Amino acid sequence: MSIQTYVNGKLYPKEEASVSAYDHGFLYGDGTFEGIRIYSGRIFKFIEHMDRLYESLNVLQIDPGMTRDAMMEEIVKVCTVNEHFDRAYIRLVVSRGEGDLGINPRKCTKGATVVIITDLLQLYPEEAYQQGLEVIVCGTRKIRHDMLNCRIKSCNYLSNIFGVMEVEYARKLAEASGGMGPIEGVMLTHDGYVSECTADNIFVYKDGVLMTPPKYLGILAGITRQTIIDLATEHDIEVSEDIFTPFELYTAEEVFLCGTGAEVIPVVKIGPYEIGEGKAGPLTTKLLTWFREYANSNGYPIRPDLVESEGKLAAAGK
Fold it and tell me: What CATH number was assigned to the domain covering residues 4-120?
């Protein structure tokens, strides 16, 4: 059976799921979304993701037409129909809905469009978690937070897409000369501070301190980012949320990325600069292990029989 996709209360085979060509999400990127992971019968950080979604909806003044709890129930139903209970990914999209060709949001009078997609996801190959990634520093800058606050997980990701285009171009050049090339790109603020990557948050480890850019720079308040901060703190690792420039990246002992899709993945090269010993560092490796153990044993249970059996096996690496 084809994967079923939820659109405004109904399920459709993913090949048939669609929204109106007059939907403001399609026409103007007028909406918000969340990416959520499922591990061993649990939806990871489900409540935190839903809180972030409804915060974005509140700022955008979009009424999704249902409470947070009702939305969570619909998501669980879609996971159940598709039998996605482990290592799966949920994409939840809420747009302002159908309007006219004008930009005025008040013309969207038919209610929000709600789409729930569940599927399997492997953002990076498993060997990359041992070998590490090559990344570049992008020329495209993040949109200033006093212009459009990135705390809103907006459907408009154009600046990030331009960053990805730079990464793709750099990889093609590297492949043409027999190299591997970058897979991700680090994006800077308008005044040159490290903010985040095109699809991930970023951490730097140097001189016993784990550093990550602060939320006030306008970065996305990543759920995985906060989990890493909490896990590091629990293991007595000093964490600093502060501004820094690419210089700290190039001279770091370890650099890693994190996100819902990426989990925790090491960076071993940034442009021409090799990071540390050019392989996954010991702290990054520990944090990946701690994160997977935590993710496989914590979350909103949707398949109780897997919570005990598969959760223990996954945490043990079996």
Answer: 3.30.470.10
